[in-house]
Amino acid sequence: MFAERTGYIIWVSDIKAARNLEKYGNVHYISRRMHYVVIYMNADRAEDTVKNIRRLSYVRKVERSFRNEIRTEYNDEKEKMKEYEI
Question: Residue 38 and residue 46: Cα distance in Å, rounded?
Fold first, then answer.
């Protein structure tokens, strides 16, 4: 029913030009202070889209987000606290 989505963090040198990234996927967040953009796109077309994004002159680096791989469901409170212990 829903397409598989994946997130990317795109480090940019120009925030105004980063608004053009909306044509590649859904822009979730733009950090004006740290100069990065969080974008979500369909997983099946992600590799081709990232190649095109890397060619842009204002893009410094592209990183894949691992948020969908982090476990968020826990059986009990003790197991939840184990994940956050240092």
Answer: 14
